[in-house]
Design brief:
This protein is mostly beta strands. Helices cover about 15% and strands about 40% of the residues. Mean pLDDT is about 90; it is low at about 110-115.
Amino acid sequence: MEATFGVCRLSVVSVRKDAQVLSAQVSQLLFGDHYEVIGISPDKHWIQIRIYFDQVEGWIPLQQHHAIASEYFDQINSADFKITTDVCSTILYKKTPLSILMGSIVPISQSELFKMEEQFAFNGESKSLGQKREFEFFKLIALKYLNAPEMEGGKTPFGIDGLGLVQMVHRICGYTLGHSTENLHRHGRKVESTSGKPGDIVFLSASDQGTKSVGLLMEDGKILHVEGRVKLDSWLGEKVIDVDTKRESHTIELIRRYLNE
């Protein structure tokens, strides 16, 4: 099929494994995320997309697709837009109010050459997408996800998984990470558990089930990760201690340093 492109113009859109409503959610599009259309379902009700930011592929309803020209797609790739840092904010899009969530991309840049195709008005908190920030800002953003409910494939303060948490905190801070454990293994360098620092990425194994997850080391011996909700547990050596039960819940299998490099 001829290459077509799109950009998310809704607050959040579920990206599903297969072209059906009951299929598992593999990721989400937030406002401003752009993508390439790589397929269409036989009934023409769903399109298969590849998200530009992290190359995740999945299906969204055709009704939630907002088509853009290839020239606009290329402009988005090269423009240093703003990324929102409020848990929730409001924009005026084509003179209509729309709530958007933290980590959304608003097409505001310093480039005088960029011609806006659409009308936006935004006055919330944001930063330049490419501006890299250090741990104090990293901590501020990370803790805004505290107590968010666990949601497979989620990327927002209203539903998120471990991969989404690690990816979105880094993205807002100006760092690009993929949405898979394999991708995270390729970033940064391995460090010993005794040398972990706030901002490091941790790979965890649940003590009772052996399931794998990822999280972030924080200050004062704390670790931010997802288990039912985004939690701030304690860690000591290679053990994670649950804040509620005071028992060991996870084992730290690996720590990789990316932010601190």
